Amino acid sequence: MTHTVMAVEKEGAPVLLHTDMANDVAEFLLRRRLIPGWEDAEIVRREVVFRESRFDFALRRDGKEMVLDRYPYLSSMAARKFECSKFKT
Questions:
Q1: What is the mean pLDDT of residues 7-26?
Q2: Does pLDDT of 6 surpass 60?
Q3: Which residue of 33, 48, 57, 69 has the smallest Cβ count within 10 Å?
């Protein structure tokens, strides 16, 4: 029998270890405008390549497009920290 660890709890908060699951949660929260400071963000698409890098999402905010990715060392949306760069299609 094999098992897959999806998440753990650290200091009372869930930490998602499964990358696809973390992105699903991020999409769920973004679409429902539940992340403070990102309520106006619209998802353009997931899994975006910009230059030579891959990002979790392409977003549109205030008429501008950008890419969004969790910091590499974070696996939790609870941290609510993001890196953004301009994105051009």
A1: 81
A2: yes
A3: 33
End-to-end, the C-alpha distance of the chain in Å comes to 45
Q: What is the DSSP string of 21-84?
A: HHHHHHHHHHHTT-STT-TT-EEEEEEEEETTEEEEEEEEETTEEEEEEE-TT---GGG--EEE
- In the block, which residue shows the tokens 């953004």? 84
Nearest-CA neighbor of 29 among 68, 1, 64, 65? Answer: 68
Q: Are 47 and 54 in contact (CB under 8 A)?
A: yes
- pLDDT tens-digit profile of 34-85? 888 889 999 999 988 877 888 889 899 988 888 888 754 444 333 333 344 4
Q: Which residue has the tokens 């753990």?
A: 8
Residue 75, both tokens: 């696996």
